[in-house]
Design brief:
single chain; Rossmann fold; eight-stranded mixed sheet; 11 strands; globular
Length: 287
């Protein structure tokens, strides 16, 4: 279906939607204050093409790689999917989507904006101006340890997630619904507390999606299900609507579905829609 038809087909009691199209167009077609939770994970403006690749090994008597029992292999690198992460005017691209996100939030709704060190500080200033500083709830740090180690600066091993609420007096937040995590020093608390675990703070230590894990889809920059699960648990209730305008591999939709929420997921990449549809394995609308 077209993006305009997809937006027009949404209703509070309707099915989840997975939409192939321009997210700004789709968002503009949705009614005011219709979303409880919006998770925005835009391109990070890295200045390069993001690719997810895999190495395939095949037996080859003339292969350059030696394996078990003297068997030789040839290796080929395959690009599974990619997208261009370079913008001449990044904020000209992102700002209208932030404006639409605020319009779509319910009075008790919450926006999560996931960026890294390149744009997070500019985003904080822009969101303060758009929402008002009183609507700033948290700066979440998602820390991980993976990838190249820089030698001439401290290695960058975290993303920033900025959290804003529509109304600081009425916003919904339920920390008791969030999965607990192990204490880093369990010997310093009672056995009962150690067994129960602790509530997460604003620093989230969570591994990236494992290369060979069951969760891996092959989509570049895929976010872990555990991170999105935590966001959905804290800032929405069962039956609430969750919007992800940059759906990618469909992690937000997967978390929302598992937790009994309803979702709209939008992406301009046909590859992303195909991956998300396979992952969700359910009756989603869209091209």
């Amino acid at each position: 279906m077209s993006t305009s038809a997809a937006a027009a087909s949404w209703s509070p009691d309707g099915p989840d939607l997975l939409i192939h199209g321009d997210n700004l167009t789709v968002m503009a077609g949705l009614p005011d204050e219709s979303m409880q939770l919006i998770y925005l994970d835009p391109p990070f403006n890295t200045g390069r093409t993001q690719r997810r690749t895999t190495v395939r090994s095949t037996r080859d008597p003339d292969g350059a790689h030696l394996g078990f029992s003297g068997t030789t292999y040839a290796r080929t690198i395959e690009a599974l999917s990619s997208y261009d992460d370079t913008f001449a005017d990044y904020w000209g691209f992102l700002a209208p989507r932030l404006i639409e996100a605020r319009r779509l939030l319910r009075d008790d709704g919450t926006l999560y904006v996931h960026l890294d060190w390149r744009e997070a500080h500019y985003a904080k200033v822009a969101l303060d101006a758009l929402f008002g500083r009183e609507c700033f709830l948290n700066e979440l740090i998602w820390a991980y340890d993976y990838g190249a180690k820089a030698r001439r600066r401290w290695p960058t091993k975290h993303d920033t997630i900025l959290v804003y609420v529509k109304n600081p007096q009425t916003y919904y937040f339920d920390s008791s619904a969030v999965d607990r995590e192990p204490y880093m020093a369990p010997g310093l608390v009672t056995a009962e507390k150690a067994a129960r675990g602790k509530l997460p703070t604003d620093v989230w230590w969570h591994t990236i999606v494992a290369t060979n894990g069951a969760e891996k889809t092959g989509y570049p920059t895929q976010k872990p299900l555990g991170v999105l699960r935590r966001i959905v648990q804290a800032s929405s209730r069962e039956g609430d609507w969750v919007l992800d305008p940059f759906a990618g591999s469909g992690t937000t939709a997967a978390a929302a579905h598992a937790l009994g929420r309803r979702s709209i997921s939008i992406d301009e990449s046909a590859d992303a829609i195909a991956i998300a549809a396979l992952r969700l394995n359910g009756p989603f609308g869209g091209d």
